């Protein structure tokens, strides 16, 4: 079965599942729609550079676009497969996780995207940089974290069993709606706290996994930081603020959560206009540092919300880029 056909099957399954979940979703007046798109331009991941230019991946259109404040959408990369995670380094270089391909890069000065890493994994997804400048990517299907170091070596960093997904029911008593299309979805969004610990979203299990970084840069033993929790079911992209709170786009719950440094969960927003929210980026421009911008993937609808980007003031500035 092709991916496109599997996606359609998954969407039908999702419709039945979310007839149950949507009845309990609450409206979120604090959310503001920033941009609206239409299929196949369903935004999966989002990143914002120092100048306030926003980058968005459109997996089913196999491209990444950007738009500057007051501008319009412009394609910056056409990819051979589904682009998922997008992240920027401190110099403004754009990195893209591409399913079944690896990591691609678009130089800050412009130019064509080119591949910088490939490996045996398939569902390359979440991206994050550590303070040393190494780039990490989750393989959601394989349940692992890989590292691209500054010398270009691409190796598995952690293959902990806590990073694996499942085809069984999650903490809400339902199988994640993307499983029929993509199989198990384990490790997904990743971020680093101020201690240098990596926090990893496990989509199927509704968990956040913590992996400390050893002094030599290797991965320490993984442990459950938060969950399993129905409010974290579908944990996808993540973002970190300056107070070490972690923001989680819980796609299958159709909500945005905030976890304090102790792992306690607070639901910040749920329901329309959120629809399968998949990633979070803090604003970088004047007046936007306390605002999170959320990609509304809407691939497996959790409400009537349209695909696009929505914004929300969370009251705390986000972690700087790089």
N/C terminus separation? 40 Å
The appropriate CATH architecture is 6 Propeller
Low-confidence stretches: 1-27
Q: What structural class do helix, strand and pairing data support? A: mainly beta
Enumerate the strands of the largest sheet in spatial order, edge to edge or round the barrel.
1-24-23-22
Annotation field: number of helices: 2
Give the proportion of residues in helices.
under 10%
The named CATH superfamily = TolB, C-terminal domain
Major beta sheet summary? 4 strands, antiparallel
Task: Compute the average pLDDT.
Answer: 90
Total strand segments: 24
Question: Please, could you describe this protein's structure?
Answer:
This protein is mostly beta strands and 322 residues long. It has a single domain, classed as Neuraminidase (6 Propeller), CATH 2.120.10. Helices cover 7% and strands 39% of the residues. It contains two helices and 24 strands. The chain has helices at 3-21, 179-182, and strands at residues 32-36, 46-48, 54-58, 63-67, 74-78, 83-88, 94-98, 102-106, 114-117, 124-129, 135-139, 144-148, 154-158, 187-192, 198-202, 207-211, 223-226, 235-240, 246-250, 255-259, 265-270, 277-282, 291-296, 308-313. The strands form six sheets. A four-stranded antiparallel β-sheet has the order 1-24-23-22, with no helix packed on it. The longest helix has 19 residues, at 3-21.
């Amino acid at each position: 079965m092709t991916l496109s056909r599997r996606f359609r099957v998954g969407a039908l399954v999702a419709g039945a599942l979310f007839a149950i979940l949507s009845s309990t979703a609450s409206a979120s007046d604090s959310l503001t729609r920033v941009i609206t798109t239409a299929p196949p331009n369903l935004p999966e991941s989002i990143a914002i550079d120092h100048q306030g230019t926003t980058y968005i991946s459109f997996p089913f259109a196999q491209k990444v676009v950007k738009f500057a404040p007051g501008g319009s959408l412009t394609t910056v990369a056409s990819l051979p497969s589904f682009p998922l995670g997008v992240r920027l380094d401190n110099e403004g270089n754009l990195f893209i996780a591409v399913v079944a391909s690896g990591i691609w890069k678009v130089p800050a000065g412009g130019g064509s995207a080119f591949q910088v890493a490939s490996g045996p994994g398939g569902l390359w997804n979440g991206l994050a940089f550590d303070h040393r400048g190494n780039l990490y990517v989750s393989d959601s299907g394989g349940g692992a974290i890989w590292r691209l170091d500054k010398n270009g070596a691409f190796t598995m960093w952690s293959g902990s069993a806590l990073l694996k997904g499942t085809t069984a029911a999650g903490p809400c008593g339902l199988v994640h709606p993307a499983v029929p299309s993509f199989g198990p979805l384990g490790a997904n969004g990743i971020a680093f706290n101020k201690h240098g610990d990596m926090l990893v979203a496990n989509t199927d299990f509704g968990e956040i996994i913590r992996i400390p970084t050893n002094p030599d840069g290797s991965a320490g033993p993984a442990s459950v930081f938060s969950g399993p929790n129905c409010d974290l079911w579908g944990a996808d992209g993540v973002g970190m603020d300056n107070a070490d709170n972690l923001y989680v786009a819980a796609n299958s719950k159709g909500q945005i959560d905030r976890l304090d440094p102790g792992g306690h969960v607070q639901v910040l927003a749920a329901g329309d206009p959120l629809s399968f929210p998949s990633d979070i980026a803090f604003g970088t421009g004047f007046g936007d540092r306390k605002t999170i911008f959320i990609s509304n993937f809407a691939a497996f609808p959790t409400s009537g919300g349209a695909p696009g980007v929505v914004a929300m003031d969370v009251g705390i500035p986000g972690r700087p880029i790089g």
